[in-house]
Amino acid sequence: MELLLPCLGVVGIAVVVIAAMVIGIYNRLVTLRSRVDNAWSQIDVQLRRRYDLIPNLVETVKGYAAHEKETLEKVIQARNAAMNAQDVKEQGAAENMLTGTLKSLFALAESYPDLKANQNFLMLQEELSGTESKIAYSRQFYNDSVMSYNMTTQQFPSNIVAGAFGFTQRDYFEIEEAAKEPVQVKF
Asked: Where are the domains of the chain?
């Protein structure tokens, strides 16, 4: 009986230490997951800003290049697809398509000197260029947050806690090699 009490004390201390470790790891995983969610929200804000600029840009171009209807329709379709994307991978694919159509739109503008000189068009180009930079920064922050979160869910002993509480890997927000260059805005 006398020997049992110290053993129970050691077991009790071990249980408390293990419980404290599990709680600490769990809280770290929650923090990292929240950071990933917040980073995605920041990307979403910038993408929404981009989506809001596109109809104005299309309308401005339409006034000068009405017979270029196919290019304008492709931009709007790509914008709608990007707005309706459901997850990170789908969003990346839609953004690649949108970036390509925007490049076509700006290439089209090169053919219309009056359009290139239009103050509204120039202002929209400048706003879009600034938004592209913010998207790139937000994407980098998101991917860095995902990397930290994913690494933590894979490392021992946090992988045990992550598996027990349903913390799963997150996808990176990746873009195609051809779309990694920002939309070129030339004046």
From this structure: 11-179
